[in-house]
Amino acid sequence: MNTSTVADKSTPYWWEAAPVKPLPRQPLAKKLDVVILGAGFAGLAAGMVLAREGRSVAAFDAMHPGEGASSRNGGVTSGTIRPDFATMSKHFGEERALAVEYEGKAAREFLYEFIRTEGLDCDFKLVGHFKGALGYNQYDKMARSADRLAKLLAVDSYAVPHASQRDYIGTDFYRGGTVRMDIGGLHPAKLHAELLRVALASGLTVHANTPVTAITREGDGFRVTTPAGVVQARQVLVCTNGYTDGAVPYLRRRLVPVRARIIATEVLAPELMARLMPKLMMMGESRHLGFYYRPSPDGTRILLGGRDSSRQGDPAAPTLRLRAGLAEIFPELEAVRLAHSWYGNVAMNRDMIPRIFEKDGLVYASGFCGSGVVWAPWVGMRAAYKLMGRAEQARSAFDFRPPAAVPLYRGNPWFMPAIIKGYAVQDQIAWWRTRR
């Protein structure tokens, strides 16, 4: 059984309005200042900065530009950091933990201003984000966190008690929640298409369907091998994230590609959408295998995403799980038809923090841990400034030691089904302990 039995299409909903496309073949330069691996959000943002500064730069993508996570994600501008403040403080020190929190605010504000100043037509709306609490004890903890966020970062963040919940979401599944008004939604495939447009206009060359197969040190630069030929590059920036392959084995041992899947409903009646999502906010919850969901940019459908425990093919079980989750939150949608179900890779590392780092002369900007809409352009641009030696502009809390290698891992995430199962058990235990 495959997805076609439960959803009309297995391609991203986003591709209906902004399909990924091949690019015309470009001549291969013999020498370049910078070669970039990957033409997603991070690679294009970095390439645009470098090209505008007069560097000769080309991005190489193994697929159509944007065909990976950049056009498959949920389009939520969350900039989420997986570890909480206490965990980050324990592992990296309180100074870096605070810097990460402040940088999240800066990165979101930068993205919104970048969309405005560059004139990127990507359906962006700063609508806010509602996060549901599974029980009253969790609500209390989340409410304190919202208050701390408002005081620390001056973010419009507040608790929503259960009695007021239906003003934000048409369900009784949660026991209240919290709202952040600095998070919005956009059309990710349109954002990529627009970023590609401005990057090309800036002078970046993009080679589509041209994977880099090897990178070797040569003199004071690098020899970059592709099926189209060999390029001599003074510098190399790796922005492959969840689609990292054997061309960069050092990074591949540190990033684990994890499947994430999203479903999109058929068009819903306007009165139903108004009842289920009265403020058209982005939505989420805190379970390990919880869901994130949102209205489509035109407000006619609901899109819901979560982790996909499958590793090969396009089986129906993950789609059915998401559909069951949708019905659990919104019982009125139990019989709804699904128009789309698709998946893509997010890149996780052991400490779950995005990263910029240098190793053996190569600069890496990857590991966005499922929040690449905000982090990928931001981290890509900081990495570009790092390549140019612009220390102040390159400054980032994510620029520090490489993430640790994953033991016994060389590119095949054989352990992911077991990890997903472990998360499911933890979620079930937490549910049993929840005071509802």
TrEMBL record:
Keywords: Membrane, Oxidoreductase, Plasmid, Transmembrane, Transmembrane helix. It comes from the Bacteria. The keyword Transmembrane applies. One of its GO terms (cellular component) is cytoplasm. Residues 33-385 form the FAD dependent oxidoreductase domain. One of its GO terms (molecular function) is oxidoreductase activity. This is FAD-binding oxidoreductase. It comes from Gemmobacter fulvus.
